[in-house]
Amino acid sequence: MEYKKIDHQDMEFIRNLINDPERILFGENINEEYSHDELSDTESYPDVVVKVISTEEVSSIMKYAYENNIPVTPRGSGTGLVGASVAMEHGIMIDTSLMNHVLELDEDNLTITVEPGVLLMELAAYVQDRDLFYPPDPGEKSATIGGNISTNAGGMRAVKYGVTRDYVRGLEVVLPNGTVVEFGGKVVKNSTGYAMKDLMVGSEGTLGIITKAILKLLPLPKKAISLLIPFPSLEQAIRTVPLIIKSKSIPTAIEFMQREVIMDAEKYLGKKFPDNSSDAYLLLKFDGNSTEEIERAYDSVAKICMEQGALDIFISDTTEREESIWKARGAFLEAIKGSTTYMDEVDVVVPRSSVNEMVEYIHSLHEKVNIRIKSFGHAGDGNLHAYVLKDDLSDEEWEKLMNEAMDLIYAKARELNGQVSGEHGIGYAKKSYLLQSMDPATVEIMRGIKAAFDPKNILNPHKVCQM
């Protein structure tokens, strides 16, 4: 499709609308970070970046862009991993990071209304200070809520509490033609027509731009305890997970990790992990309203682990210990990135009963493909993160071996009735794998939905299922 190239007239419109030169970045003033996201090597500069502060500004820009056939890319913190916030057709980038205000805390309805640029860590701290709890817990705490909603981010607490979608009650959205609409609201139940709000969650900025979100909250659990459980081998650790899931005790999180990733995290953080002597670990978290309640929950799980060959049970029951363990877990991605010259990631999800088979398969690929692969993940919900490392490979070798490893991983996930992405999305980088794995009829329905929202295809083109 032919898009209009930004010219003097377009810049005049933007300057007159924004009326603050510091919120408009053009040409050489566009920081290099705006050309890519946190991981993917997808790189393309926008012609102009506009730091918006209101729904009205977003609406006016979209109306103008729609009438003039100018491509627009929405962006939050840029912490994505699949190129979803990269301006593939240049044009206008709408940066929502200054729309970062809490608009309302409704304790009667247990909801909070926020702008899209509020950071996850800011939201979590804000509600926790008021004895409330926003359960979604993606690893990147500096991501924006708008970005979390756009990718339906998951995180470590999904085992017990679910993912971002489960906590979105309502959205204010600017459509590609500039129209402002509201989907959902504060109601708990809603069978009023199509689930438009749910369609927006996970749409990666291709259907509309989120300018306001009403989020569900819970009462804050009063106590949390974690168990760090070393195993002699990865296989023994992973094969224990289905038994934990089948038990009546539901942990808040079930994570698996290998010694080599822990060592990377220790080096990255400059701090020792509580234990690094075993080949593999399960990290379990339990929360509740009393120590006694939590102890009853984890006691049976601890017994299952010991029966399956666990070497020990380290109980983390102080804030200091909790922070040391989970801070290390939160640093895994950056630590792995720092251990190599470049890497690409796989974010597959499989049925929970197939986690052990998928993890063991990924672990075996190192020898089969002759490339380093490190993995960790949310064993309790089947979402596994595997990172293929370039190290000192030439660009040609890297492309060949990385693609071979990824093809095998995604093929195995399909064989196990899994999906391409559990929480990072498709963006630009993983589009080919989505098209390979999905029924063509389903892809056509997705493209039809995109066309209904955005007939001119100006909003975040070339992402998810768009060619």
TrEMBL record:
The keyword ATP-binding does not apply. Keywords: FAD, Flavoprotein, Oxidoreductase. InterPro entries: FAD-bd_oxidored_4_C, FAD-bd_PCMH, FAD-bd_PCMH-like_sf, FAD-bd_PCMH_sub2, FAD-linked_Oxase-like_C, FAD-linked_OxidoTrans_Type4, Oxid_FAD_bind_N, Vanillyl_alc_oxidase_C-sub2. It comes from Variimorphobacter saccharofermentans. Its cofactor is FAD. Residues 42-220 form the FAD-binding PCMH-type domain. GO terms for molecular function: FAD binding; oxidoreductase activity. It comes from the Bacteria. This is FAD-binding oxidoreductase.
